[in-house]
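Researcher: Excuse me, tokens okay?
***
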Amino acid sequence: MPRLQEEGSGPLRGFWLSTVGSGRPTETGTIHEPTGLDLAMKLHYIKAVYIYSAEIASDLTVMHVKGTFFPVFNQIPWITGRLRRSSSGRPFIKCNDCGTRFVESQCDLTVDEWLRVQDRSVDESLVYHQPVGPDLAYSPLIYIQMTRFKCGGIALGLSWAHIMGDPFSLSHFFNLWTRAFAGEEVYSTKTSDWRRGFRKPNSTGKKEPGSIKRINPIGDLWVIPNKSKMSTYSFNLTVKQIQSHFPAKGNEFEILSGIIWKCVSKARGESEPVTITIIRSDPEGLKPRAVRNSQMISSVDVDFSIADAKLEEIVKCIGEATDERSEIDEAGEKDDGVLDFIVYGAKLTFVDLSEVDFYDAKIKKTSPLSVYCNVQGIGDDGAVVVFPAADREERVVTVTLPEDEVEKVQCELRKCGLITSLVNGE
């Protein structure tokens, strides 16, 4: 079996690009105004891959897949629009029905062969990604890649501009497509029908939220200027494995975050991170589903060494994370939304997607065999994304760090027993 991550020697081939638009024209002059929180996320992108078996997908045609996106785009017209800037420089989306880019590719492996690789970050090659810019008027906000495996199974990979919405929004969009594919009538709540403000439950009065980092202007090419080359790997583990081997008060995500924070701190030594960012679902914002940024972004700051601290103490601090969405929204609105920020990786970031209903995306009443999700555009402090596996009792953990830290952190993860072997399965 070939090494899936080696450029130029992988099993993917034959990329054909086309465009898919809405099924009906949007009213002339319609625009979508991003919030301050939306604008703060604009340098980030979400990547997701859904893999379906040959038994389910062998008779799916490209035209059928494309055609059933029409009614979904009709409901959410701004995601097929294009970005513009107002006279002040503030970005907005012109709902001009320019469409999304659709990419067709082939894989020389079967689905079973592809899924044998333990490190699911290989799925990133199933997502066609281009950043927004440098010409905003011609940059799609979504790329959809359909890959046909040798056995007849398919993978549908999405690259999604975070300015439109969070991972829950991407999942909502894709679940709408599977319902449209099944012949159901679909409907998505408009953001104008939803309260877009955020409460200040734990406002600290800080001038700038600790979970974001303002950077020098990057212009119209929306790419984070990393100082380090970033590397991604992933591994699976069970909820029982987390709770039984690492007993502490807190849910599995908080315990897992505490363990990995401690491992990263040991690997970094004197430069250990004492401030982290926690991104998770808003307990008050799960319904109604809509395309928006409503994820809770919190900050944790400690005045002690994480490397030397007890896990219970670390988990307790994570559980007391301060919600900073209101402050981020205000920061995104400054100077009429023209400032540039990093959220993921501005500080070491932990993302809890365990409540995202990825496996509700059923084709012919059957869930995908595997789903992968990660963020494109992570700052130098790195990020850890946790999301459900096909087995409800398992979690997939995707870690993105500077390349020169990966081996050190893996070593610490093995020492504490979180992983038992090399994560790439070798």
